[in-house]
From TrEMBL:
InterPro entries: ABC_transporter-like_ATP-bd, ABC_transpr_LolD-like, P-loop_NTPase. Pfam families: ABC_tran. GO terms for molecular function: ATP binding; ATP hydrolysis activity; transmembrane transporter activity. This is Putative ABC transporter ATP-binding protein. Residues 6-74 form the ABC transporter domain. SUPFAM superfamilies: P-loop containing nucleoside triphosphate hydrolases. The lineage of its organism: Bacteria, Bacillati, Actinomycetota, Actinomycetes, Bifidobacteriales. It comes from Bifidobacterium animalis subsp. lactis (strain AD011). Keywords: ATP-binding, Nucleotide-binding. The keyword Nucleotide-binding applies.
Amino acid sequence: MVPTPTAKENILLPLQIAHRPIDMDWFDKVVSVVKLQNRLDHRPSQLSGGQQQRVACARAIMERPSVIFADEPTGNLDSRSSHEVFEFLRMCVREYGQTIVMVTHDPRAASFADRVLVLSDGSIVQDLDHPSYDDILAVFAQDDDPQNGPVEVESATARSAEQ
């Protein structure tokens, strides 16, 4: 985030730089989902880490890009806020045809994806189609052997047309 503008200005900054029109109805919807309505006039230094992360999520979603790249997008959020953000991202995929490419170590976050690629030591070890939370936990349990090293989960929520 840019340190001097407010949360609202940070969210709108990419659209303003690109001289693109701002859809305030969409802005209100995005801000409502990430629960920043009462923090829009605050500067980053006045926001918690989780609130700053929600500003970053809102900024990425606001532009309605065809692909959103997200690295641990809800890492600083509580489970309820995380769930709401992932439901909103799922809606972006279903209703607007956006694709979300997400890197996460959180099996609950990965369970929102249409496809999950599980990486270990830089190689794909599993390719899961519409996995449940339990499916992902089972993969983690299989790879719980300390000799195998950490498991990384890359989840890509694909366009609805691919289903």
